[in-house]
Amino acid sequence: MRVELDEYAHLDSLIHRWEPRSKLVGLLALIFAFAFVEDVRLLPAVVVVTTVLYIASRLPLSVLLKRLRYPGIFLLGIVVVLPFLSGETVIWQWGWLTVRQEGCWAVLLIACRFLAILITGFVLLGTTPFLTLVKAMRSLGLPVILADMTLLSYRYLYEIAGNLATMRQAMRLRGFRSQSKSERFFIPNIGNLRRFASLTGTLFIRSYEQSERIYKAMRLRGYGNARVNHSAIASTPKSFFSDHLSLIAFSITLLTATAFFMTELLLYFSSP
Amino acid sequence: MHIPDGILPAQACIGGYAIATPVTWYCLRQINRQKDPTAQIPKASLLTAAFFVASSIHIPIPPASVHLVFNGVLGAMLGYHAFPAILIGLFFQAIIIGHGGLTTIGVNAVMMGVPALLAYHVFQLRYHVRRGRSDRWTTGIFAFLAGAVGIGVAALIFFALIITTIPSGFNATTEQAAIYGLTLAHIPLMLIEGTFTVMLALFLQRVKPELLES
């Protein structure tokens, strides 16, 4: 696992300069507005807004394509299944293979919504350093326990992944091979399962022991003391709209989100 | 078993958040009632990270391999911290590897987290039935149940959601049959996850028993 979160947070663009809290609220509103779209007539607008947002963020296109690889597999599953199974209007038939209209529209809708939400989320995370984002969430009311747990897990995630990689290498060096020739289909090898359980257990025990040391160190530095607690994370020097850019960007995003929402409602009630 | 963005209608996503919020609130309240709530935070955080990493371990089941969901174990080991842990794990999965999504964190948290809390209570039952029986046996049996319940209930919620919300021409009986069928198809996975949980619990009991005492 590579640290990929803050890789593009240092770039300079309009979206990067947008104040984090209003950016979080604005882009989340937009994401939910996209999730609300049910009518295919709104899809061109969704595509345009997402494209404009991505261009404004100046994030490289190659990064997006790399990120899409994994979620794309799921999308492919939907695309392969729905047009053939869902709906009644047959638009194309070849033997038993039929392509149905409703299924095709559903695929188009799901694919566009999926990509639009994914790209907007990517813009939000790609343009804001992770720590700033958690700070913004904290000042918007995220409970202390959740904020602390998020930051601590993030801090140790890669270290624990490194631990696991070392342990697996040690297993391999001692001659462990996860797949042996004597295995039968669909039945896991009990001995191997036990070895994997020990590996996982060791990972947990190491993490647990490390957490005890960390807790003691944190305690010595005053963690858990209500007076000094979280002063660093709760303080936000800038106000919500510290500059004109944030105010304008926030207003535009919120207006777009509301427009999507209202149009969707209108189309929903006007359709027979 | 994560629902990505864009698949579910917005009502379902909002419904997910609407259920996840009070559950989170309830769990946080239970955590704050403990003698020293901050003492558990590093433990829960590091184990959250460890679970996130451990879910990348693939267990070979020829000809393929599966990765375990671990929500049952998570519940058994972390108790009420399991729900926040799952919430955070899902957030990381969405932003780091693009698994799941931001709008569906609520739905996914309910799908994984509620079975985890259920698994926690199942695993706690071992104290009630222990009376004179060997620790090894009661831990083993209840660890199996916790692991199997965790993934079983999650699979049930997953298929019920997917099949009832995706627009399709299926009728109600077909949908019901599909939900039951697909959940039943998860029985082998429940057995594997349950067996793995037993092995893990027995290993932990032998090496570091306090990890199982929440």
What does this structure look like?
- The complex is a heterodimer of chains A (272) and B (214).
- Chain A is built from 10 helices and 2 strands, in the order H-H-H-H-E-E-H-H-H-H-H-H.
- Chain A has 272 residues and is mainly alpha-helical.
- A two-stranded antiparallel ribbon of chain A has the order 1-2.
- In chain A, helix 2 (20-36) runs antiparallel to helix 5 (101-127).
- The longest helix of chain A has 31 residues, at 190-220.
- Chain B has one domain (10-211): Arp2/3 complex 21 kDa subunit ARPC3.
- Chain B has a two-stranded antiparallel sheet.
- In chain B, a hairpin with a 2-residue loop joins strand 1 (58-61) and strand 2.
- In chain B, helix 3 packs across helix 4.
- The model of chain B has no long low-confidence stretch (mean pLDDT 85).
Spell out the key features of this protein.
heterodimer; A: 272 residues; mainly alpha; 2 domains; two-stranded antiparallel ribbon; 10 helices; 2 strands; 70% helix; 3% strand; flat; B: 214 residues; Arp2/3 complex 21 kDa subunit ARPC3; two-stranded antiparallel sheet; 9 helices; globular
